[in-house]
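request received
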Amino acid sequence: MVQKETQPNTDHRKEQEFVTPEVNIFETKDGYVLEAEMPGVNKEGLEITLEGTEITIVGHRRHEPLSGTPLVRESPAADYRRVFELDPAIDTGNVSARMDQGVLTLTLPKSERVKPRKITVS
Amino acid sequence: MNYLSRWQRPELATWAGFGRLSSLRDEIDRLFEAPLSELAHTTQLLSGWTPALDVFEDKDNLVVRVELPGMKREDIDVSLHDGTLSISGERKSDNKYEDAEVFRTERFFGRFQRSVSLPTPVASDKVKAQYTDGVLTITLPKTEEAKPKQIEVSVS
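response:
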């Protein structure tokens, strides 16, 4: 899919506001599948924007902060954000998303005209 | 004819075959680009999976939260022994995309283990664990003796 990953505007102040989710990307004959890890984000906190050939994934954490004194704090409090440039073969009208236990699965089908096709010899 | 058989799609030429290597390369890129706070994450590549863990304490409870995205509840194991809380488990890869072309593999699959030595005694029979949105939250109520008590000062 992802021909290249677009670096969001490198404004230093902005960089601190997001963490980069880890992703797996696969290509099947029908399209691409992207899995992104965003623990603490549910369906409502997810924001996926398609603009031209660029897809932006933003995940807002929905967990209320824990009360009391932090003794150990390893998890980042920031929201998630990552931008990818899409293969032009992707049918952007048919992208679908699913969120399951903090893992986003994006299905990006290729448009019919670029799918491999069997040619029947008569 | 020769031309036809050797043709390769341009995006494949860039990415195919890299598989896991590309993830290592990405990590190296990130080393240089990422803010310091993200570097801790990068070491996972060498040490396996170390899920992020938080411990909070309030008047009545200790609360431990671990980020475990994409697990099955039955693959998470929580135990309490001698004042040490252990969380372990295994994230299994679903082999759904086994024969697909791999572009990036940054997610870690396999076993993990984290332990926390609890700073106060807890009522082990009242411990509760909840797994939502890929986050495991364990609430450990303190024993009555461990709770802070107001001691009244009498004036004589």
